From TrEMBL:
Belongs to the short-chain dehydrogenases/reductases (SDR) family. Gene3D superfamilies: NAD(P)-binding Rossmann-like Domain (3.40.50.720). This is NAD(P)-dependent dehydrogenase, short-chain alcohol dehydrogenase family. InterPro entries: NAD(P)-bd_dom_sf, SDR, SDR_fam.
Amino acid sequence: MNNSLKGQVALVTGGTKGIGKAIADTLSNAGAQVIITARTAPAENTNGQHFISSDFFQPESAEVIAKEILEKYGRIDIIINNAGANLSPGGGFSTLSDEDWNNDWQLNFMSVVRINKALLPTMIEQKSGVVINISTGAAKLPIWEMTMSYSSAKAALNAYSKALANEVAKHGIRVNVVSPGLVETPLMLEFIENMAKSSSVTAEEAYKSVMEKLNVPLGRMAEPEEVANLVGFLASPEAKYITGVNYSVDGGALPTI
């Protein structure tokens, strides 16, 4: 993929850590000018990536991001909607407040809708573009003890993505979904530590419990780069006839075909 994205402008939301950072670096290495967003700037930025501070709980953040990108670069070729997290407490339906539900839906669904709405008109004018929405295997395999509101928001994202792919294909725009399973990121490790504390077990025991619950055939978590490699391919010209598809990167955990 060396220089396969040269001259292209790419946005990666949540691009300073974990999967988002791996995706941003993959696109940079392929020659793209990458814009990354997060609440705080990264400690290091060795790839010349343009950072925009954003808070996706604020509805206006999408317009602010789009305005800065278009004023500086005049175009947008790739949108990677990666920002997201499982924000709610575990324990099932009775533990979830309206605020818990709203937070998960704002970050994991509405933030994507708003970014796309702000930037897709430019792609339509260009008659080209790629949108990749990062979902989760939990949208198809929800764990009621841990991911109820998060899974529902991501399931909505999957349906929205398919509808959007069908709508914008005539404009030369491709829309796909990548659904990671367990990925060894700082956020995942924090989740496991919190799970261990709430269950009064060690982090190792909590990790083992999660792995057993999801029954990952490959027997390990993914590295962020293993997700980023697929995203990089889907963003490239090599994938120019692929749209409307949801790809699982879960080590075989999804028990259906």
